[in-house]
Write a structure and sequence with these properties.
Elements (H helix, E strand, L loop, with lengths): L5 E6 L2 H11 L3 E8 L8 E7 L6 E6 L2 H7 L8 E6 L3 H10 L3 E2 L4 E3 L2 E7 L5 E7 L2
Length: 133
């Protein structure tokens, strides 16, 4: 058996990213541990969040150096690169909207389900999705 355990998202700072994913998106903080200091001498942390009940987590990786800093918010060249599927689209949309999540459009229906594009704290584009009924 194999599964995708983690995907990394490069962020500016750990704590605001944790707050966004936990408070605004409703993810669980799975781990926040000190890690070996990076080559730049900055303390490093191993920070993993994931949707409740999910297997795949997101490693929140603080940008190090100019090249990584330039990738913050543009990890997939401006395309939607992350997809959050929920059971109750309306409740998730309302909760996220109340938490200040920035939506780039109004929700719409597609053949594959309900969808709306939003930005994470770093500026990456996500789809909030609910399967078609």
């Amino acid at each position: 058996m194999a599964f995708l355990q983690l995907a990394a998202i490069i962020v500016d700072e750990y704590d605001p990213a944790i707050e966004f994913f936990v408070d605004a998106l409703g993810f669980e903080l799975v781990e926040d541990s000190p890690a070996v200091t990076t080559g730049s001498g900055q303390p490093k942390r191993w920070v993993v969040v994931r949707p409740p009940g999910g297997q795949t987590g997101i490693l929140l990786a603080r940008a190090e150096g100019e090249e990584q800093a330039a990738a913050v918010g543009n990890q997939v060249a401006g395309r939607v690169g992350f997809f959050l599927q929920v059971d109750d689209f309306d409740a998730a949309y309302q909760r996220m909207d109340a938490a200040g999540v920035r939506f780039l459009e109004t929700p719409r229906s597609e053949p594959y389900g309900r969808v709306v594009v939003f930005l994470d704290i770093a500026g990456n584009r996500w789809d909030l999705l609910a399967p078609a009924a």
